[in-house]
TrEMBL record, chain A:
Keywords: Ribonucleoprotein, Ribosomal protein, RNA-binding, rRNA-binding. This is 50S ribosomal protein L20. The keyword Ribonucleoprotein applies. It comes from Platanthera guangdongensis. HAMAP family: Ribosomal_bL20. Binds directly to 23S ribosomal RNA and is necessary for the in vitro assembly process of the 50S ribosomal subunit. It is not involved in the protein synthesizing functions of that subunit. Belongs to the bacterial ribosomal protein bL20 family.
Automatic annotation (TrEMBL), chain B:
Residues 74-99 have a biased composition (Acidic residues). Signal peptide: none annotated. InterPro entries: bL21-like. This is Large ribosomal subunit protein bL21m. PANTHER family: 50S RIBOSOMAL PROTEIN L21, LARGE RIBOSOMAL SUBUNIT PROTEIN BL21M. Residues 42-57 have a biased composition (Polar residues). Residues 40-114 are annotated as: Disordered.
């Protein structure tokens, strides 16, 4: 039989995989088998983390709102704030509240005052 | 969030003006530039009560009239504010540090009487109210206002000139101007809260507070890339 070389198919496939994992540490970016495995793990993680990212950010916003609320008022917390927000029908979401709490504290104070005063009435 | 906000760029706006409106099947992104308009209730504090003129302003004449005789040395901020108030042209280099002296000099050099100067100023379109005294402080530092806008289920905090990427709005075309507030027609954009103020001053936080206008301009259509989806 004539000698047949397998060509460039495999090389091109591995080149793409290597490019994807080019920034990985150590053997994970150098050795083909390790690179392939790490690429699979990376893709799985990125898929999962896309939904986790939303959870993480919401958690961060809640933590920030909680911190600023407790700082401003005694015996007041995030849970009470959210409850009063819904009662007052103020539609601000946690992302915006956290941003206002950080960047524009006067505004956040005014929101708190409005909610609390409304509640007392 | 910060990735969604792009500085409003003139080039994008001009590109959208030049390009024909293309409705591709996959285009879902909407770039909007926002503009918060203060109401007469909260007048802009960076200008005198001068009339707006359609005639081109002559720099020489303006300099004669704008540099008032003042006894105190103006600070940098007040220099800038005086320039704005007297409607000096952009790009003009006005040396206000010598304003008090140059004003008298220019008036004497021009050879015009006071009435003639007033008349000429009126023709151009402004009237000089009087000299600024030490006790007066008509100008405050400009502090931007922001509004919180809800489009669909997403809320954005926008300031004047901000651009945001959103889903496409149903009845909007490129270069359409939509708005909320006095004198505008409310569209699918819901203004959740309009707050006039900044870090130091908050004037109002009521939803849809009276006297605040909020406009946005639909800049361009485009496909959605990774990281751009709303």
């Amino acid at each position: 039989m004539t000698r047949v070389k397998r060509g460039y198919t495999a090389r091109r496939r591995r080149k793409k995989i290597r490019l994807f994992a080019s920034t990985f540490i150590g053997a994970h970016s150098r050795l083909t088998r390790a690179t392939t495995q790490q690429r699979m793990r990376a893709l799985v993680s990125s898929h999962l983390d896309r939904s986790r990212k939303k959870i993480y950010f919401r958690r961060l916003w809640i933590t920030r709102i909680n911190a600023v609320t407790r700082e401003e008022r005694v015996f007041y917390s995030y849970s009470k704030l959210i409850h009063n927000l819904y009662k007052r029908q103020l539609l601000l979401n946690r992302k915006i509240l956290a941003q206002i709490a950080l960047s524009n504290k006067n505004c956040f104070d005014m929101i708190l005052n409005k909610i609390i005063n409304k509640k007392i009435k | 969030m910060a990735a969604r906000r792009l500085a409003g760029s003139v080039t994008r706006h001009f590109r959208s003006l030049n390009q024909p409106i293309s409705r591709s099947l996959s285009s879902q992104a909407l770039v909007m530039r926002t503009e918060v308009i203060p109401s007469p209730q909260y007048p802009q504090q960076n200008s005198f009560s001068a009339l707006h003129s359609t005639n081109p302003l002559r720099s020489g004449d303006l300099r004669k009239l704008s540099s008032r005789s003042t006894d105190f040395s103006l600070s940098e901020d007040e220099d800038r504010e005086d320039d704005d108030g007297d409607e000096v042209e952009e790009g003009e280099s006005c040396d206000e540090e010598d304003g008090s002296v140059s004003g008298r000099k220019l008036a004497s050099r021009s050879g015009k009487s006071k009435e003639e100067m007033v008349k000429e100023a009126a023709e151009i379109g402004y009237s000089v109210v009087g000299p600024l005294t030490l006790s007066e402080n008509p100008f405050k530092l400009y502090e931007p206002a922001f509004a919180i806008v809800q489009i669909g289920s997403h809320q954005f905090k926008v300031c004047n000139g901000d651009s945001i990427f959103t889903e496409r709005l149903k009845y909007c075309e490129v270069n359409d101007k939509n708005g909320h507030g006095e004198g505008t027609v409310q569209t699918v954009v819901k203004v959740v809260m309009v707050t006039v103020g900044s870090r130091k001053i908050v004037f109002a936080t009521d939803p849809c507070c009276a006297g605040i206008g909020f406009h946005f301009i639909y800049e361009e259509d485009g496909p959605v890339f990774d990281g751009m989806c709303s």
